[in-house]
Amino acid sequence: MRWVNVRPNRRSAVLLGTVPLLVALIGYLIASATRHAANASDKVLPTPAAMADAMRGLLFDADPLSGRIIFWADTVASLERLFLGLGICALSALLVGMVLGVLPAVRATFGAFVTTIAVIPPIALLPVLFIAFGLGETAKVALIVVGVAPFLIRDLAEHVAALPQEQLVKAQTLGASSWQLALRVALPQALPRLIAGLRLSLGPAWVYLISAEAIASDVGLGYRIFLVRRYLSMDIIIPYVAWISLLAIVTDVLLMQLSRRAFAWAHQGQR
Questions:
Q1: What does the alpha-carbon distance between residue 10 and residue 15 come to, in Å, rounded to a whole number?
Q2: What percent of the chain lies above the pLDDT cut of 90?
Q3: Please, which residues bridge with residue 69 across strands?
C-alpha cells in the first residue's frame, strides 16, 4: 500500500497529533533541567515549578491598584478586541466580497483597489492608526480589520467569482434576479469559505493584536508579555504564549465545528 493511501482513523489521528507535542514538551524539560543544573538562576528556560510560582499571583490574587485579577483581565481585554475585530472583518468581507464576486463590473472597478490595500503591511500602518484614532481601543481593533479584512474580501470575491457558470445560468433561466442570485446561489457557498478564511486569519489577527497592545495599552495579553520582558520574566512570558496558543486552537476548533454542523455538505469526503 502506498503512503498516500494510508488514512488514520480518528483515534489514531489524535494519538499521532499528540506525539510532536509530547516530544516538544520532553525536549523543553530536558533543556530546562540541563540549564538549571549548570546555573540555578537561569531565566531563559524556567522550570515548570518556577512558572507555576510566577503565575500563581497573576491567576488568583487581585491587583492592589486596579482590583482586577491580572491574568483574567488581560484575557478578557484581548478576546474582546480580537472578536470585535474579526466580527467586523467577517461582516465587511461578506458584504464587499459578495458584491465584488457577483458583479463583474464592480470587480473590474474596485478589484485592483482592494488588492492594493491587501498588500500593504498592516504593521507599517500602526503609527497612522494611532495618530488617526488615538491610543484607545479603536486603533487596536482597526489594526486587526486593516490586516485581515482585505485578505478575506479578496478570497471570498475570488471564490464567488469562480462558482460554476452553470449554476448562474440555471438560476437565471428560472427567473432569478441579481439579488436572488446573490442570496440563493452565491451566499450559501460563500459562508463556508468565509469561516475557512477566518480560521486561516486567526494567527495574523493575534499578531496584529499583540503588536497593538505592546505599543499602547494598559491591559491585555500582549501588553503583559512586553511589560515583563524587560525583566527577562520568561516564567510569565512562556505561560502567556502557551495560553494565547490554546485560545487560538480553541477558537479554530469552534469555527471548524460551526462550519461542519451548519454546512455539512461543504465537508463531504473530509475527516
A1: 9
A2: 57
A3: 62
Retrieve residue 43's grid coordinates.
531565566
What nine digits make up the cell of 68?
A: 482586577
Q: pLDDT tens digits for 204-227?
A: 999 999 999 988 788 999 999 999
Rounded to two decimals, what is the model's pTM?
Answer: 0.88
Q: Can you tell me the distance from the alpha carbon of 160 to that of 50, in angstroms, rounded to the nearest whole number?
A: 52
Which of the four pLDDT bands, split at 50, 70 and 90, describes residue 1?
low
State the DSSP string of the chain.
Answer: --GGG----HHHHHHHHHHHHHHHHHHHHHHHHHHHHH-TT--SS--HHHHHHHHHHHHHSBPTTT-SBHHHHHHHHHHHHHHHHHHHHHHHHHHHHHHHHH-HHHHHHHHHHHHHHHTS-GGGGHHHHHHHH-SSHHHHHHHHHHHHHHHHHHHHHHHHHTS-HHHHHHHHHTT--HHHIIIIIIHHHHHHHHHHHHHHHHHHHHHHHHHHHHHS-SSSHHHHHHHHGGGT-HHHHHHHHHHHHHHHHHHHHHHHHHHHHH-GGGGTT--
> Cell 546555573 belongs to which residue?
39
Q: Which of 69, 222, 39 is nearest to 47 (CA)?
A: 39
The band of 270, judged by pLDDT with boundaries at 50, 70 and 90, is low
Rg (CA), the chain: 23
